[in-house]
Design a protein that fits this description.
Layout: E1 4-9, E2 12-17, E3 20-24, E4 32-37, E5 41-44, E6 48-54, H1 56-71, H2 79-96, E7 104-112, E8 115-121, E9 128-130, E10 137-140, H3 144-158, H4 166-183, E11 193-200, E12 203-209, H5 212-237
Antiparallel strand pairs: 1-2, 1-10, 2-11, 3-4, 5-6, 6-7, 7-8, 8-9, 11-12
Helix pairs in contact: 1-2, 3-4, 4-5
Length: 253
């Protein structure tokens, strides 16, 4: 099982994932054998991010496809064409080994046409869907049933004005991933991994993995929100007569 989250931001893209792979003797959930830590997010040549959910072998194939595509220098193509060609290459790869699309989905983040792009490749038919100003976040994988309602809460509470900043989205991704890992019935586990693609002082853009320390800073802010909500309970118990409670610290810039 897997949980992936992605956010298109005003100034980049954030992609996060858990780190657990489940071994099984058959597809039935009761036949799981062991869990092992794996890397589900891959930074490609410092220019793109790939994260997959589903069969590990399919993820290996798709990561190789994206790496080869970037290595061949398709810099002039429109972003929609890039998504369509990546999808077509993966579908063709499946057919070359006697398979049809299914059993694997992915998120890919890159920069094209001077804008950051976040593309979701659906696990049913692997067709591309780009995130936009109207729908800028996504979750995928076995943990989606837990993550999506929480994402709805975060949008209603924090993202009413539209796209978040990169720093805000890292905070949201950390919170959603931790929440899903804590509540899932098994097969989704830490540590949390998060990658970003954003502008760079010396080049057009850079994709990179965040360090444990960087994620930890945002986790401290998640804990601050929980503390704030617990303190608010005291205000309710007092009939609303207590003074306003100070807000938790803002996410680090």
């Amino acid at each position: 099982m897997t949980i992936l989250v992605g956010f298109l931001c005003k100034d980049g893209v954030v992609v996060g994932a858990d780190s657990s792979a489940t071994f099984a003797a058959s597809p039935h959930p009761s036949h799981r054998t062991i869990e092992q830590r794996v890397q589900k997010i891959h930074v490609i040549r410092g220019q793109a991010i790939v994260a997959g959910t589903g069969e590990v072998g399919f993820g290996q194939r798709f990561t190789q496809i994206v790496d080869a595509y970037i290595g061949n220098g398709h810099h002039g193509k429109p972003y929609l064409t890039v998504g369509k060609e990546l999808a077509g290459s993966m579908v063709q790869n499946w057919r070359e080994s006697g398979m049809n699309p299914g059993g694997f989905g992915a998120l890919v983040a890159y920069c094209r046409d001077g804008k950051f792009q976040l593309c979701e490749f659906g696990p049913t038919n692997f067709q591309p869907e780009f995130k936009t100003d109207n729908l800028w976040y996504v979750s995928m994988g076995g943990g989606q049933m837990i993550a999506d309602p929480f994402l709805g809460f975060i949008r209603h509470t924090f993202m009413e004005d539209g796209l978040p900043t990169l720093s805000e989205a890292i905070f949201y991704a950390t919170w959603v991933l931790d929440h899903t890992i804590e509540l899932n019935p098994g097969g989704i586990n830490g540590p949390v991994n998060i990658a970003v693609i954003c502008s760079h002082p010396t080049k057009l853009h850079e994709a990179r993995m965040l360090s444990v320390e960087e994620i930890g800073q945002h986790r401290e802010n998640v804990n601050g929100v929980y503390t704030h909500l617990r303190e608010y309970k005291k205000l309710l118990a007092g009939g609303g007569s207590q003074p306003p409670i100070p807000a938790p610290p803002a996410p680090p810039k």
